[in-house]
Amino acid sequence: MLHFAPPALTAPKVRLVNLADPQDIARLSAWMDGREDATAFHRIAWGEAVARATGHDFLALVAEDTTGDLTGYLPLHAVHSPLFGRAMVSAGFAVDGGIIASDGASAQALSQAGWQLAERYSAPTLELRGGWLPENPCWTIKSNAHAGFIADLVPESPDADQKQLEWVPRKQRAEVRKGLANGLVVRTGTSALDRQQHYAVYATSVRNLGTPVFPRALFEAVLDGLGDDADILTVLHGDVPVASVLNLYHRGTVMPFWGGGVWAARGLRANDVMYYALMNHARRRGCVRFDFGRSKVGSGAFSFKKNWGFEPAPLSYAIRNADGQPPRDVNPLSPKYRLQIALWQRLPLPIANRLGPLIANGLG
């Protein structure tokens, strides 16, 4: 769904939040607490975690009315890469995090201020991932490339695990049951072992898909920054981790964000067990919704999530490019990367894990 804010009566002021001032941060955080459209990626902790792990500057723009009350917020990361160039992204390494605003004037002012920051950073592209979308011919709105998948979890009850399984469509439910019959063990936590095993599984998974792995420091920073609102769920066959996912929790919603499995996971149905176990784990934590995250339309992940009974909802992003500059292309499914992906899939894992973070750090 496209979001366009109502008009304001007076022109707002836009400024950068002083991220070294606890009072300024607390004021912004309190304002976001009252906004239903604020996501986990709008949190200061997310912005600072990404900056700390990747070196990409975190900039927090706010709009204020004539009385000084906050009327809008735009988190930005100044992403720089020798391979993919520069871009201002809202928000970095996220699937959401665009403008949230009380009125159209604030939204428009934030989008213009964001572009001015992009120019200051010599970034020819500004990407707004979700939120309010600028009504301006300088911007391109993309609504048909990606979809999100969100569904309610069953209510907590003594037999909720069984009811959650019954909620899953019949064919997918059969896959989960096959996995449950394989004697797999599920563990959750944020210990050093959880982190090490998750990164090993995730790095193997993305190498097999032909894409570079993100820096481990990014996962560490997000886990440390979000505290109790992030954890890892790992599925083990014997003592061997075969599937693992890093999860984000925000206002009653769980989002499995960085996850994958090794080759053996497919035959063991470990990924199926992983997501079913996460539904139960999140519900016991008090969650009422499961956000399966973003997938590219027509991809295997898109079909997989539909098989689970999730209905796709189009996601809308706004992109502005400097005059004469081509759009930044960091989509791993782009035809221009087909040869690179095929070569990457053949790399020995130690080499992929050494080179991957140097490349993926610039994707943003």
Automatic annotation (TrEMBL):
Recorded hits in InterPro entries, A to Z, give:
Acyl_CoA_acyltransferase (IPR016181), BioF2-like_GNAT_dom (IPR038740), PEP-CTERM_FemAB-rel (IPR017469), PG_Glycine_Bridge_Synth (IPR050644)
Query: Which protein is depicted?
Result: Peptidoglycan bridge formation protein FemAB
**A matching Pfam family:** Acetyltransf_6
The record's annotation in Gene3D superfamilies points to: 3.40.630.30
NCBIfam families, sorted: pepcterm_femAB (TIGR03019)
Q: Where is the BioF2-like acetyltransferase domain?
A: 173-305
Top-level taxon: Bacteria
